[in-house]
């Protein structure tokens, strides 16, 4: 699965990944958790569907997980939140930002559930512009919301700015996110918003912004006036708001935790362009955030990025809470307000987390993963003993009744017809005990059904006549008449003697005789006697035809093919492509132009080194990308020098 990460609780991580969760997390998801040392991990860009979920993504010992996966698009978007059960457990969970979706196995939307089961804060009529309907907004797997007693955690993956065709959806999603967060805060709930927002907040959060805008003749005010950047700067304290605030966004409600701990730090980027290899030179942007409401801002003791953790085009962002926090005017252990009532008290665990504590949206309750039996049960779980007393029958003449039979079965009961088929394979043991003198015997003159008697009989069932049985029957000749052996494809049916050597060998004669005798068994009985016994007639005709037919020789060409010459010619055709050298004297790499215009789709060569901190191509004396640029159509391997431009 690709991933992006963030954490909360004692530590909350937003791991930012952009390759597949099925590729990255599946390999070593538990090792990743150990590296992050997180208690809550928020993952974006899972890029999987429900059918792609596997045991090592869901059934992780000590962890619970909640997914929001795309409903239609394959390998697209996807958000997951993992929680460490020993430290925290949510009390409510939802999928989607608007509340329009339904819990599993229910036709009632989250917003229509009873009030005690709702997280709340759903958009009210008139709060959304309606450019995109709510069902479409929540169909791409972009949001998971968990509620703890302390706060509501909103994990999101906001749409990126690709082209104008997605602007409407992007604006509608950020609008719904803004409304939901503000409604929750207005209800008196604390909120943590974390994830890949795909938004640059200020000029400190991207490399080379000022120079890029100067080339495009765009001012900073115009740049930060776009709808998505206005949303972020109006929802966070200290944001850069151009002009008057929008209606409904008069007040900021969230704090940017990384900037609170590092207000002037430059180069604190979380995402890099991997196609240009910009990460080594740290030419990137900060688009991943951990934001929190004012009531819990003082709970956090640290927030930062983990740029040293590789594996994606993003790096993890984390925020750490203290072991004790101020809640409702008193100081309490963090575990007391991060778990359901009764699970922790004064920091001491009162009971363990069990699968009964999992919420309906937990992935552990998906039918493919629920009700799993432990492999240990196969060896250590004791079989159930079922006592089946047979009906006692009053015997004539005062005879003793039949003994009581107790059957101990190690498997579930089968129907009578199934027991008849599996009588020889089902293990069971019978203990026969004499009847007690005080037992009450019931008169039952009926005899047991004949089928039951057949079940107890150890006789084998008749073997089914199938293809396997027929295939095992021995053939008369040792080989199938309709299908020859593999060896027969590489030798002639009738041996042709060479002119210099007569076929007088004993082995050849025996082989020919065996082939002829095999063929004679397949001939019908109605044929004339001379054909029914072909040992002599066919053998004689074969010898005569061999003598009468002259041997022909295949004319040979005088040209001799040299294998070394052939290898050299193929090497020229399929050999490694010669690429030009850059100013560093190293092989260039091939790229394709994706910028719209007359050159879109053309390939070119450029320096393979990473882009430097300035974002520009530099001369060949530095360790970063030089100015070498050659169109592939203009490159000729015979050229002695590369072109620069």
From TrEMBL:
The active site is at residues 157, 196, 314. Probably binds two magnesium or manganese ions per subunit. The record marks 288 as: Important for catalytic activity. Mg(2+) binds at residues 45, 196, 198, 313-314. Gene3D superfamilies: Endonuclease/exonuclease/phosphatase. One of its GO terms (cellular component) is nucleus. Residues 422-443, 477-486, 532-544 have a biased composition (Polar residues). GO terms for biological process: base-excision repair. Residues 582-635 form the GRF-type domain. InterPro entries: AP_endonuc_1, AP_endonuclease_F1_BS, AP_endonuclease_F1_CS, Endo/exonu/phosph_ase_sf, Endo/exonuclease/phosphatase, Znf_GRF. One of its GO terms (molecular function) is double-stranded DNA 3'-5' DNA exonuclease activity. Residues 381-511, 525-560 are annotated as: Disordered. SUPFAM superfamilies: DNase I-like (SSF56219). Keywords: Hydrolase, Lyase, Magnesium, Manganese, Metal-binding, Nucleus, Zinc, Zinc-finger. The record marks 198 as: Transition state stabilizer. Transmembrane segments: none annotated. The record marks 314 as: Interaction with DNA substrate. Pfam families: Exo_endo_phos (PF03372). Its cofactor is Mn(2+); Mg(2+). Belongs to the DNA repair enzymes AP/ExoA family. This is DNA-(apurinic or apyrimidinic site) endonuclease 2. It comes from Podospora anserina (strain S / ATCC MYA-4624 / DSM 980 / FGSC 10383).
């Amino acid at each position: 699965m690709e991933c992006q990460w963030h954490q909360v609780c004692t530590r909350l991580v937003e791991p930012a990944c952009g390759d597949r969760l099925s590729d990255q997390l599946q390999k070593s998801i538990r090792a990743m958790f150990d590296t992050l040392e997180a208690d809550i991990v928020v993952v974006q860009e899972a890029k999987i569907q429900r059918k792609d979920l596997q045991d090592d993504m869901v059934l992780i010992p000590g962890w619970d997980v909640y997914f929001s996966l795309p409903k239609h698009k394959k390998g697209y978007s996807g958000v997951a939140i993992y929680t460490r059960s020993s430290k925290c457990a949510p009390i409510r969970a939802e999928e989607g930002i608007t509340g329009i979706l339904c819990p599993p196995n229910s036709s009632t939307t989250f917003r229509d559930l009873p009030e005690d089961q709702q997280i709340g804060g759903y958009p009210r009529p008139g709060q959304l512009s309606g450019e995109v309907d709510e069902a479409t907004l929540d169909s791409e797997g972009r949001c998971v919301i968990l509620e703890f007693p302390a706060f509501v955690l909103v994990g999101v993956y906001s749409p990126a700015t690709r082209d104008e065709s997605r602007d409407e959806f992007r604006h509608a999603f950020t609008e719904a996110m803004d409304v939901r967060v503000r409604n929750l805060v207005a209800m008196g709930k604390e909120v943590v918003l974390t994830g890949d927002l795909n938004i640059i907040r200020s000029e400190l959060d991207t490399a080379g912004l000022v120079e890029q805008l100067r080339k495009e003749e765009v001012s900073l005010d115009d740049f930060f006036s776009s709808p998505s950047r206005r949303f972020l700067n109006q929802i966070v304290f200290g944001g850069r708001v151009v002009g008057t605030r929008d209606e409904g966004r008069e007040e900021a409600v969230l704090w940017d935790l990384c900037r609170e701990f590092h207000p002037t730090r430059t180069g604190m980027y979380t995402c890099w362009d991997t196609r240009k290899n910009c990460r080594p030179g740290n030419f990137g942007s900060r688009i991943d955030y951990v934001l929190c409401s004012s009531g819990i801002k003082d709970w956090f003791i640290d927030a930062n990025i983990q740029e040293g953790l590789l594996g994606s085009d993003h790096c993890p962002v984390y925020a750490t809470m203290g072991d004790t926090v101020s809640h409702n005017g008193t100081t309490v252990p963090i575990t007391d307000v991060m778990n359901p009532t009764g699970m922790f008290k004064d920091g001491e665990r009162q009971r363990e987390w069990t699968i009964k504590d999992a919420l309906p949206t937990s992935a552990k309750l998906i039918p493919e993963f629920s009700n799993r039996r432990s492999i240990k049960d196969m060896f250590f779980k004791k079989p159930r003993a079922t006592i089946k007393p047979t009906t006692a029958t009053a015997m004539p003449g005062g005879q003793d009744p039949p003994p009581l039979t107790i059957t101990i079965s190690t498997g579930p009961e089968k129907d009578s017809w199934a027991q008849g088929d599996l009588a020889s394979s089902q293990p069971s043991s019978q203990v026969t005990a004499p009847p007690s003198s005080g037992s009450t015997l019931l008169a039952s003159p009926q005899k047991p059904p004949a089928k039951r008697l057949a079940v107890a009989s150890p006789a084998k069932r008749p073997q089914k006549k199938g293809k396997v049985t027929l295939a095992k029957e021995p053939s008369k000749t040792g080989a199938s008449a309709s299908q020859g052996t593999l060896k027969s494809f590489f030798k002639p049916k009738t041996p042709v003697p060479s002119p210099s050597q007569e076929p007088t060998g004993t082995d050849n004669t025996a082989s020919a005789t065996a082939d002829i005798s095999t063929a004679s068994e397949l001939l019908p009985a109605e044929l004339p006697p001379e054909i029914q016994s072909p040992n002599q007639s066919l053998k004689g005709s074969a010898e005569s035809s061999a003598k009468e037919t002259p041997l022909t020789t295949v004319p040979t060409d005088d040209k001799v093919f040299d294998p070394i010459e052939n290898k050299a010619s193929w090497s020229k055709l399929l050999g490694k492509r010669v690429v030009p050298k850059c100013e560093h004297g190293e092989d260039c790499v091939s790229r394709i132009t994706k910028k719209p215009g007359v050159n879109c789709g053309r390939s070119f060569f450029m320096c393979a080194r990473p882009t430097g901190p300035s974002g520009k191509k530099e001369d060949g004396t530095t360790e970063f990308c030089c100015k070498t640029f050659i169109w592939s159509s203009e490159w000729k391997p015979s050229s002695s020098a590369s072109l620069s431009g």
